[in-house]
Amino acid sequence: MRAKTKELIFQGALKAFAEKGFNETTMEQIAEICGVAKGTLYYNFKTKEDLYIFVMESGVQNFIGMIHDYVDVVNKNDFRQRVIRLIEAHLDFFQNEQDFCRLLLSRSWGTQERHHTIRYVLQEYFVLLEQELQTAKEKGKLPSNIEVNAVASSFFGMIGFTAMRTIIHEGTLDNPGLRYSLQNLALHMLGIFEED
């Protein structure tokens, strides 16, 4: 699939799924929004579920890329700053990709099939987050008895659902008070109370 067609399909399907939900969206509607022939859509995606997985995987890959861009510039030993940059990456991504945020955090949880898809596409995200936490734990930056999986889930939930609620209420994630609050909550949750 050509890059331009792929991007058109991604953007159109994302918009349709985010606005109408998976069950209410048809392949015909998606083709119309994308401005591509229905045959082109079916040639590249045999089912709506295949297209949904493509949208979710592409969105999460964009998300992971942004996290790397934000965090990889910080010294690996400066865990406090890496956590702050992680939060900034999440909030900036969700602010800029509100359709994806809605799709990921709200309507996606409707059926058991969607749950499986969400778990599948977020697997790489959680591996990234858990590796960051595990490295910090091994370096003594986190308490030795902390459960890395639980912290990663809590981190995602705290930031993700704060973002979703803000977007639903037509607020902005560029709010300094919101960012400060999330940074403090996350740092305290991790036992980081002052500069290292």
Automatic annotation (TrEMBL):
InterPro entries: Homeodomain-like_sf (IPR009057), HTH-type_Tx_Regulator (IPR050624), HTH_TetR (IPR001647), Tet_transcr_reg_TetR-rel_C_sf (IPR036271), Tscrpt_reg_YsiA_C (IPR013570). Residues 26-45 bind DNA. Coiled coil: none annotated. Keywords: DNA-binding. GO terms for molecular function: DNA binding. Gene3D superfamilies: Homeodomain-like (1.10.10.60), Tetracycline Repressor, domain 2 (1.10.357.10). Residues 3-63 form the HTH tetR-type domain. This is DNA-binding transcriptional regulator, AcrR family. It comes from Aneurinibacillus thermoaerophilus.
